[in-house]
């Protein structure tokens, strides 16, 4: 039940950010589904592992693979899928909290939050790299599928 | 017919393409590869180097270089997509050089945007952060929906009026902080902190900082670092705005109540 709520809210979140960043209409739904799948994976991994790195890492892998697949299927640059589907994962809120503590002069909080931001951002970036390596393995298969569909049309 | 394309034409078109891509939020590696593809398709050996503030286009083994200055822009991924579509068509030979030039000019001039009601609803949905589900109360999250919309609108409108960098983000933070504190002090919301974090989601540069790390890992060190520093300073101005907004609200409530 919780998972379903998480899925729906992150779908709305991703589509919302897609609207703000002006992504082409045909990529709204694939981006939304990519984002909410990634968030669901994040949520499920978080139940097992309470760290910062693993949940973000796996979520980034999901975004990387699904994003690349939908980029091929819907013929959009892959960044257009990445940007909105990242919105619920990225450490924006923590970065803000860090800079707020900085403004208020609380040094220990500042360093903790900024460190967390760094950890999450690196976990996500490494996840993308791994996803792209995996995707290069799947790509020939996907291309074959797309070609087959084109010829049958 | 190919003879009618001069080197200058190709370089200036490539500069324009790169500029549109960079200001609409494409990654630097994508900008470089798109520009070089276009050059190759026009039978010129174009080399392109993109950083986030400038773009260099030139032909290999020649001394001529075209420098385009770029300023960091807002996200407009639709433009990235349209440029990508026309450049792919050109590379495949479905468009000739002059139509490509025309359509790039058209994309550059066109204001592509979703209409405001859609954007407002979008900002509202982003403001309900999945991070806080089951941590914040549902009433707080529903307040965050509206506070986020107002904060986003404030930041965008301030961005139109005030050209000083980072002030717009600070205005957004100020509005969000003020409203959230007002909700808490008036007893409607239970935690101002949760409302603020949730409602700031459309404004905070989280995606920018993640992309900057992707660029650093991709060895685009300069633009990655520029993006990261930019993101930190945006977050800082939002933080300062929130602090000022909350304190002001506290003052007002103390003055009314006391």
Automatic annotation (TrEMBL), chain A:
InterPro entries per record: ThrE_2, ThrE_Dicarb/AminoAcid_Exp
Assigned keywords, A-Z: Cell inner membrane, Cell membrane, Membrane, Transmembrane, Transmembrane helix
Superkingdom assignment: Bacteria
GO cellular component: plasma membrane
Keyword Oxidoreductase appears in the UniProt entry: no
Bilayer topology: Multi-pass membrane protein
Pfam family, one: ThrE_2
GO BP terms: succinate transport
Residues that span the membrane, as ranges: 28-46, 52-73, 80-98, 113-135
Subcellular localization(s) per the UniProt record: Cell membrane
Record has Cell membrane as a keyword: yes
Residue span, Threonine/Serine exporter ThrE domain: 7-134
Family designation: Belongs to the ThrE exporter (TC 2.A.79) family.
UniProt-recorded name of the protein: Threonine/serine exporter
Automatic annotation (TrEMBL), chain B:
InterPro entries linked: ThrE-like_N, ThrE_Dicarb/AminoAcid_Exp
GO CC list: plasma membrane
Localization per Swiss-Prot or TrEMBL: Cell membrane
Residue ranges of the TM segments: 116-135, 141-160, 167-185, 191-210, 231-256
Pfam family, any one: ThrE
MF (Gene Ontology): transmembrane transporter activity
Any one of the GO BP annotations: succinate transport
The entry's keywords: Cell membrane, Membrane, Transmembrane, Transmembrane helix
UniProt family annotation: Belongs to the ThrE exporter (TC 2.A.79) family.
Protein name: Threonine/serine exporter family protein
């Amino acid at each position: 039940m919780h998972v379903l709520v998480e899925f729906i809210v992150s779908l709305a979140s991703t589509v919302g950010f897609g609207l703000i960043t002006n992504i082409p209409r045909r990529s709204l739904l694939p981006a939304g589904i990519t984002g909410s799948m990634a968030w669901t994976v994040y949520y499920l991994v978080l139940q097992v592992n309470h760290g910062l790195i693993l949940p973000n890492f796996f979520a980034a892998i999901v975004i990387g693979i699904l994003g690349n697949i939908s980029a091929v299927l819907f013929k959009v640059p892959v960044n257009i899928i990445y940007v909105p589907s990242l919105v619920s994962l990225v450490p924006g809120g923590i970065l803000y909290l860090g800079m707020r503590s900085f403004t208020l002069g609380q040094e220990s909080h500042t360093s903790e939050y900024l460190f967390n931001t760094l950890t999450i951002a690196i976990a996500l970036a490494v996840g993308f790299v791994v996803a792209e390596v995996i995707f290069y393995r799947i790509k020939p298969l996907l291309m074959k599928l797309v070609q087959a569909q084109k010829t049958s049309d | 017919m190919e003879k009618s394309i001069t080197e200058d034409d190709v370089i200036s078109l490539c500069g324009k393409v790169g500029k549109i891509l960079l200001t609409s939020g494409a990654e630097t590696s994508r900008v470089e590869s798109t520009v070089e593809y276009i050059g190759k398709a026009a039978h010129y050996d174009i080399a392109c180097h993109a950083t986030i503030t400038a773009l260099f286009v030139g032909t290999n083994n020649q001394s001529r270089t075209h420098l385009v200055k770029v300023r960091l822009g807002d996200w407009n991924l639709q433009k990235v997509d349209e440029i990508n579509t026309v450049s792919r068509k050109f590379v495949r030979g479905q468009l000739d050089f002059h139509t490509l030039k025309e359509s790039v000019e058209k994309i550059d001039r066109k204001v592509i945007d979703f209409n405001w009601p859609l954007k407002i609803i979008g900002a509202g949905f982003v403001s309900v952060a999945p991070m806080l589900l089951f941590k914040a109360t549902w009433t707080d999250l529903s307040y965050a929906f509206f506070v986020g919309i107002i904060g986003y609108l404030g930041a965008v409108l301030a961005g139109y009026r005030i050209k000083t960098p980072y002030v717009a983000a600070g205005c957004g933070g100020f509005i969000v902080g003020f409203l959230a504190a007002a909700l808490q002090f008036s007893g409607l919301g239970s935690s101002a902190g949760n409302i603020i974090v949730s409602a700031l989601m459309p404004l905070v540069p989280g995606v920018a900082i993640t992309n900057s790390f992707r660029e650093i890992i991709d060895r685009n060190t300069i633009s990655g670092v520029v993006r990261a520093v930019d993101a930190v300073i945006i977050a800082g101005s939002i933080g300062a705005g929130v602090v000022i907004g909350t304190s002001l609200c506290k003052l007002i409530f103390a003055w009314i109540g006391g």
